[in-house]
């Protein structure tokens, strides 16, 4: 196939507007998967994605397509996530494409991430095709959506393609629009190799697999390539395209998207955003790459069993290959031993990393309470950045503390406006704008501390608006705040891993909620365990776990031996996921519940 028959495009949209479903229809149309192997949300290959019904990773796939005039095309499609936490994934997908399908759900209209994704695509100069999805639904408002496409998005409604991804309506038309409107990639296969690493992953059987978009030149099996950033050189062992799975082609030409293997041993040689070039014929300059990711939430990860530290180190390295937005460094805690302080793009990102470490790498881990990045000015006029309670200087030495603020934009049907305004006020939000988009939809803008939206804000926004409100945010600035370190004491001893940084006025309620949760999560011991919340030496909350009275097996009345054994085994199983802190056994769930207490 020649380059003028290649189209590289991504599907972008607000969450749930149907991106993954549309990708499914494309895959079926292209018949690259046998019907019996087809599953819904085909590209959401991770377990967590399938269970939660959301896309976390961008996924690429190459589809053959024969247009009306009988020409064969090669379509490289990238499905992208829609949740706020994963915008980084979207921007990477966008850098490897010439065009984007911007999906709008005809029953929901334009939402917060429809706009932010559109801006990303604009910034990269992509050709954008507006697509109205879910036209099969009775609630579909096609004229209204067309108007929004014109007014809110500034796109030509004439270009909009109407589809139902679920029912497979309008898919042919959309494919035709793609080959006609999206430009073929530029680039010359005769030039020295210049390719962008837009993703990578670790395969337990095949090792490191690098995902690239070739801009100039060719990448061939047997060729020696060099990575700009790490300056590492490798011989390409295998190269090919993404089908559902991998299709070895031996070569990737300018304009193509695909993968290669090169027996890469040192994982840190690979950096998403880096440029690959030939080691003999180097390209003149590297590609622009991606902007540095800025984590917004920090938390430390420790293995439940300290012997798993090495395993955790290796797993994080491999996970980082596939999740370039994950940032980590060594950390240590008195209670938990050695671990890693990690930076995340949001709470959902944190949960995903935790789940992937447990599922894909079989680790048992605990996480400390998440924190944002505070700025502290000391009395000696020093500026410190504080991302965990351990880094917090003594209260007496602090002149002023500052916390990061965000600009939060919420779009909601007017019915839920009251609910959402209350929520924002509770989260210390300051309203700066209120704009009626239509008679029934309103956009409100708040300035809010990031720490307040970190925990349950997104979930509560969704439940208070029955799923109809959407939310997007960007970082604003740092503002003065009153910050305290809240300690949790078990049996009179501070457990450093449970400490957290909080806004002074939230400290007491937070402390009470945590003590209660811990009381419910920590099993009874042979002795009484007081749980206390404290700021410095002042106790602000208290609960007690009473001592264990009877042997658990006593319940079995001695008779049934096998039942007794089962019960003991079950206890042992439970212990595996316990962490000894002093003489108290802390289950993994205790850390999780503290993590989620807001
Ligand atoms: P994504 O978050 O944008 O990837 O959205 P999904 O593809 O996961 O779809 C979200 C939900 O909308 C799923 O329950 C789909 O079955 C549903 N959906 C997607 N497209 C259509 C459509 O054209 N019609 C209807 N009725 N439902 C759809
Ligand atoms: Mg999806």
From TrEMBL:
InterPro entries: EF-4, EFG_II, EFG_III/V, EFG_V-like, EFTu-like_2, G_TR_CS, LepA_C_sf, LepA_CTD. One of its GO terms (molecular function) is GTPase activity. Residues 4-186 form the Tr-type G domain. GO terms for biological process: positive regulation of translation. Gene3D superfamilies: 3.30.70.240, Elongation factor 4, C-terminal domain (3.30.70.2570), Elongation Factor G (Translational Gtpase), domain 3 (3.30.70.870), P-loop containing nucleotide triphosphate hydrolases (3.40.50.300), Translation factors (2.40.30.10). It catalyses: GTP + H2O = GDP + phosphate + H(+). GTP binds at residues 16-21, 133-136. It is found in: Cell membrane. GO terms for cellular component: plasma membrane. PROSITE patterns: G_TR_1 (PS00301), G_TR_2 (PS51722). Its EC number is 3.6.5.n1. Keywords: Cell membrane, Elongation factor, GTP-binding, Hydrolase, Membrane, Nucleotide-binding, Protein biosynthesis. Pfam families: EFG_C (PF00679), EFG_III (PF14492), GTP_EFTU (PF00009), GTP_EFTU_D2 (PF03144), LepA_C (PF06421). It comes from the Bacteria. Belongs to the TRAFAC class translation factor GTPase superfamily. Classic translation factor GTPase family. LepA subfamily. Belongs to the GTP-binding elongation factor family. LepA subfamily. PANTHER family: TRANSLATION FACTOR GUF1 HOMOLOG, CHLOROPLASTIC, TRANSLATION FACTOR GUF1-RELATED. Required for accurate and efficient protein synthesis under certain stress conditions. May act as a fidelity factor of the translation reaction, by catalyzing a one-codon backward translocation of tRNAs on improperly translocated ribosomes. Back-translocation proceeds from a post-translocation (POST) complex to a pre-translocation (PRE) complex, thus giving elongation factor G a second chance to translocate the tRNAs correctly. Binds to ribosomes in a GTP-dependent manner. This is Elongation factor 4. It comes from Spirochaeta lutea. The gene is lepA.
